[in-house]
Write a structure and sequence with these properties.
With 386 residues, this protein is of the alpha/beta class. It contains 14 helices and 15 strands. The chain has a nine-stranded mixed sheet, with helices on one face. Helix 2 links the parallel strand 2 and strand 3. The longest helix has 19 residues. The radius of gyration is 21 Å and the shape is globular. The two termini are 32 Å apart. The chain binds nicotinamide-adenine-dinucleotide. The site of nicotinamide-adenine-dinucleotide has 21 residues, from helix 4.
């Protein structure tokens, strides 16, 4: 690729999740979506129009072989993520892979080995780390306003029994296995907060245990879901922090995919729990008393007249381009692409490279072994030692 050449991007799973990546790649002057692939041939032409791609493939290997793609976005169902990422990495094609990175520890090992051998960049598309509240909380932690952070909760509550029937892979890989099958949206931001603490050189989950709330729903065929309704994973980190992750994809109730809380020695955070609410913090250095919460975005409860957002929000979120505001998942779909492209084009360190992807993916996989063994604590491997 010449210095000023555009990066050609290929999107696989283009008729599903892959379709949401157009705005972000289009907004970047150095990229364009060039090719796409989906096994649903009948949906290809429509997807190509929506994504502005000029080449279409039903076979992924053929796209990698025949198309001049520099990078791929993997938006296929979960069991394809690792095999398709490995195929691209083997050709030194950069990878932005949907979550989770892999569906077994063995796949994780193969993926790490492929990333090590490859000249290309691997990034996992954990978009929830980029939402405005999650970015602001990370900045408040980084500035030391929470003191030492030592406890966090994350919940992904997304009832998808109907969606299971429309996308049957979910019935197999998300609700067809017990334990935490889709935990990176909850764990990802929390790991970033724990690692942002002043003096911390990073943190990762070293052991987990997992239990469930039982089986209260049947699928339309009358079979119980293998996944218990609410699965809860307890996780201990290398620095000794405790994390509680709840994933519930079955219980009847409104969605709540971005529930978080965080506790440090000098502050705590409670995220918004439903639409229309805003997150709030208590920070010893900024609050007049222990009973006063600060709204993340409301200036009225601050003597300076400036909201926490106005004072502490990192630059990326201060003047977000229109494309970021239009992109899905609270802007996350835009900012993750920006970081991916920067790491390819400018050599900026990739924020969710292969080991960060493993840090977010492996605890859930080990939780599945824990719940099968009556909830015993189990060690989580460190991919850096593989
Ligand atoms: N990060 C997020 O916020 C977010 C949101 C939604 C979905 N996802 C993830 O994105 C992935 C896709 O989810 P979805 O809801 O779009 O699923 P989906 O089933 O609606 O779409 C997947 C698409 O992939 C195609 N496909 C399946 N196997 C293929 C193969 N081998 N080669 C090429 N194409 C293939 C299907 O035909 C379909 O068009 C999942 O891993 C899901 O977890 C992430």
């Amino acid at each position: 690729m010449g210095v000023l050449a555009k990066l050609n991007v290929g999107v696989v799973g283009a008729a599903g999740r892959g379709a949401s990546f157009r705005a972000a790649f289009e907004a970047h002057p150095r990229t364009r979506i060039h090719a796409l692939c989906d096994i649903r041939e009948d949906l290809l032409a429509g997807a190509a129009k929506r994504l502005g791609a000029s080449e279409m493939y039903v076979d992924y290997a053929e796209m990698l072989e025949r198309s001049d793609v520099d990078a791929v976005v993997i938006g296929t169902p979960m069991p394809f993520h690792a095999p398709q990422a490995i195929q691209a990495l083997e050709r030194d094609i950069h990878v932005l892979s949907e979550v989770t990175a892999a569906v077994s520890v063995e796949e994780c090992q193969a993926l790490v080995a492929a990333a090590r051998r490859s000249q290309a960049i691997y990034m996992m598309a954990e978009n929830y780390i980029y939402t405005k509240p999650n970015v602001l909380v990370r900045e408040l932690v980084r500035r030391g306003l929470f003191g030492e952070v030592y406890y966090a909760e994350g919940e992904y509550i997304h009832e998808l029994k109907e969606l299971n029937e429309i996308t049957p892979w979910r019935r197999r890989w998300q609700t067809g296995i017990d334990g935490i099958t889709y935990g990176t949206h909850s764990l990802g931001p929390i790991l970033q907060w724990l690692s942002a603490c002043p003096g911390s050189s990073g943190d990762r989950v070293v052991r987990v245990c997992c239990a469930g709330s039982g089986h209260h729903y049947m699928d339309p065929r009358g079979d119980p879901y293998e996944n218990q309704d609410s699965c809860v994973m307890l996780a201990k980190t290398a620095r000794g922090a405790l994390i509680v992750i709840r994933v519930d994809m079955l219980s009847e109730r409104p969605h709540a995919m971005t529930n978080y809380s965080l506790q440090g020695t000098r502050g705590c955070y409670e995220s918004a729990r439903s639409a229309g609410e805003r997150g709030k913090v208590w920070l010893a250095d900024l609050c007049a008393s222990k009973d006063v919460w600060l709204d993340l975005a409301d200036p009225s409860d601050r003597p300076s007249g400036q909201s926490l957002e106005a004072e502490y929000l990192p630059e990326m979120w201060r003047h977000p381009p229109e494309a970021a505001l239009r992109a899905g998942h609270g802007g996350g779909d835009y900012f993750q692409v920006l970081d991916f492209v920067r790491s390819i084009v400018d050599g900026t360190p990739c924020p969710i490279g292969i080991h960060e992807a493993m840090d977010m993916t492996l605890p859930g996989l080990i939780s599945q072994a824990s719940i099968a063994a009556a909830g015993v604590w189990m060690e989580v491997p460190d991919s850096r030692t593989w």
